[in-house]
């Protein structure tokens, strides 16, 4: 996608949000805008595909709408066309409920929200793939307007704005634009964004790590048990050379965010057979439990130091049982880590973002960390800069884990200073990511940046993985030249003496009166330090 084309799409979509910004928070209006974009995508794609099935080549959506309407109302073509669309897309829309038809109704002044709501229901009821997909788009919310007429008007304005884009023909450009919008909403949502979005720079870093050496692998499988909007998973599609064969597995607790991930997959042209998403509590009930259960890569950005039940029954859960202890109730970080690690293939790679506390906290967490180190499970620890996530300003760490290792050493990378300062957040630029990836690949010591610590060294540190213990980033101050400093002081004293002499000279030249005499004597006393 060209930069000019991307900018046009991004700007048009973001401008649509202006209609809602004054009415509600970004965490709310994202559901409306993203939902309506998705509905238009499904509608437009169906119209063009229907025309192709009928061996027609429409010039635009209006012509495609006309062709579809005629075929739909023709008893000879209706059934075959509907069956073909259901086979290819798992949904159909009545001609009067397509996005194109609804916008035409808006221009004619007879648009009704209930028609759009019916379109939503038609798609949701057509297949499990789309079940409850639009449930967060409350078309009758008072946030849209205090009356039914105002609600109707608000939605109509958004639809007219979105209608200017030929969404069905944008391909991956639309998926990228959708990611852009999610990122913009995350930025505007602040802490709430942590529920659904991992910044693209961090996603890229983690994805390139787990794909290292497997870029050409067909059928690559990736799992994210805390997938949010799916942005972390979808980065694999960007960096593999076999994007059409990747199998995506993801779970998300928040239903709204889960629906966002489903839309995101479809808009990125991931076929229904290649994405397997689940709405559930990752820690409470293991998933997936049916084949496949282990994956080539695990990517995770779980909620930091979240609370969980830590029920004793989990000691018999195969995800946690071999470690003998459970992560504390107040900090589920290691529970998420162990869950992801359990689902990793012996030949796979896992990358997880967590707060630094997991590197050095004691108690049960210390015992789990020691066990992982004794097994050689922890491969790399990367310290990221502070303030690069939307939901927290604290510095975080990416921990890389593997199962099939022939040693127990750990690579430490201190990338805490690898960023560009932004207006609201620090940014990992491409050159920062490239530096980290290059260091990860070479696995060598780099002065004040990286160190490969042998197991014995880690054991001597009582299995504490705090990065400053292994990477010394201290910069000595330049020695002070005492001779130069002394000369500078002497020169400064001489300059002060000269200035005082000049001031005395000016005071002596002043005309002395009874009123000014007292002032002049006082000024001389000050400069004589009396």
Automatic annotation (TrEMBL):
EC numbers listed for it are 2.1.1.72
All copies of domain DNA methylase adenine-specific, residue ranges: 171-478
Task: Provide a Gene Ontology MF annotation, just one.
Answer: N-methyltransferase activity
Q: Does the keyword Magnesium apply?
A: no
Under InterPro entries, the record lists:
D12N6_MeTrfase_N (IPR022749), DNA_Adenine_Mtase (IPR051537), DNA_methylase_A-5 (IPR003356), DNA_methylase_N6_adenine_CS (IPR002052), Restrct_endonuc_T1M (IPR004546), SAM-dependent_MTases_sf (IPR029063), T1MK-like_N_sf (IPR038333)
The record places domain N6 adenine-specific DNA methyltransferase N-terminal at 11-162
What is an example of a Pfam family matching this protein? N6_Mtase
Q: Which UniProt keywords apply?
A: Methyltransferase, Restriction system, S-adenosyl-L-methionine, Transferase
Q: Which principal EC class is assigned to this enzyme?
A: transferase
Reaction(s) the record says it catalyses = a 2'-deoxyadenosine in DNA + S-adenosyl-L-methionine = an N(6)-methyl-2'-deoxyadenosine in DNA + S-adenosyl-L-homocysteine + H(+)
**Which GO biological process categories is it annotated with?**
DNA restriction-modification system; methylation
**What is the similarity comment for this entry?**
Belongs to the N(4)/N(6)-methyltransferase family.
Protein name in UniProt: site-specific DNA-methyltransferase (adenine-specific)
Annotated source species: Tetragenococcus halophilus subsp. halophilus
């Amino acid at each position: 996608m060209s930069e000019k084309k991307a900018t046009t799409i991004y700007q048009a979509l973001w401008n649509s949000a202006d209609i809602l910004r004054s009415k509600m928070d970004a965490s709310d209006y994202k559901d409306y805008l993203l939902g309506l974009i998705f509905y238009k995508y499904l509608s437009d794609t169906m119209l063009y595909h229907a025309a192709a099935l009928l061996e027609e080549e429409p010039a635009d959506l209006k012509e495609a709408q006309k062709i579809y309407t005629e075929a739909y109302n023709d008893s000879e073509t209706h059934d075959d066309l509907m069956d073909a669309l259901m086979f290819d897309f798992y949904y159909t829309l009545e001609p009067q409920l397509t996005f194109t038809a609804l916008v035409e109704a808006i221009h004619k002044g007879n648009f009704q929200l209930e028609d759009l709501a019916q379109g939503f229901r038609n798609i949701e009821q057509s297949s499990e793939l789309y079940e409850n997909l639009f449930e967060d788009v409350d078309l009758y919310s008072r946030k849209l307007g205090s009356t039914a007429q105002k609600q109707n008007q608000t939605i109509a304005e958004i639809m007219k704005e979105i209608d200017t884009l030929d969404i069905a023909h944008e391909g991956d450009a639309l998926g990228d634009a959708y990611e852009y919008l999610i990122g913009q909403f995350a930025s505007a949502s602040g802490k709430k964004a942590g529920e659904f979005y991992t910044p693209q720079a961090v996603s890229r870093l983690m994805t390139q790590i787990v794909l290292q050496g497997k870029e050409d692998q067909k059928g690559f499988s990736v799992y994210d048990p805390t997938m949010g909007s799916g942005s972390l998973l979808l980065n694999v599609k960007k960096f593999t050379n076999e994007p059409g064969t990747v199998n995506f597995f993801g779970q998300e607790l928040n239903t709204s965010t889960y629906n966002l991930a489903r839309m995101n997959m479809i808009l990125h042209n991931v076929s229904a057979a290649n994405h397997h998403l689940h709405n559930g509590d990752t820690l409470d009930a293991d998933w997936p439990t049916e084949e496949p259960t282990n994956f080539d890569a695990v990517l995770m950005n779980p909620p930091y130091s979240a609370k969980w039940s830590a029920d004793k029954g989990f000691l018999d859960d195969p995800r946690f049982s071999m470690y003998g202890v459970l992560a504390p109730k107040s900090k589920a970080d290691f529970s998420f880590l162990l869950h992801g690690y359990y689902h990793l293939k012996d030949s796979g790679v896992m990358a997880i973002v967590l707060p630094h506390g997991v590197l050095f906290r004691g108690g049960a967490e210390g015992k789990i960390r020691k066990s992982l180190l004794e097994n050689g499970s922890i491969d790399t620890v990367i310290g990221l800069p502070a303030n690069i996530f939307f939901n927290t300003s604290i510095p975080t760490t990416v921990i890389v884990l593997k199962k099939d290792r022939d040693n127990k050493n750990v690579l430490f990378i201190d990338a805490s200073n690898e960023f560009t300062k932004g207006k609201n957040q620090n940014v990992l630029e491409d050159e920062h990511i490239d530096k980290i990836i290059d260091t990860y690949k070479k696995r060598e010591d780099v002065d004040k940046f990286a160190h490969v610590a042998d197991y014995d060294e880690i054991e001597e540190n009582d299995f504490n993985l705090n990065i400053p213990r292994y990477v010394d980033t201290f910069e000595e101050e330049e020695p002070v030249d005492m001779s130069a400093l002394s000369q500078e002081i002497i020169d400064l004293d001489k300059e002060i003496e000269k200035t005082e002499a000049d001031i005395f000279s000016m005071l002596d030249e002043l005309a002395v009166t009874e009123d000014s005499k007292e002032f002049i004597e006082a000024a001389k006393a000050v400069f004589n330090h009396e």
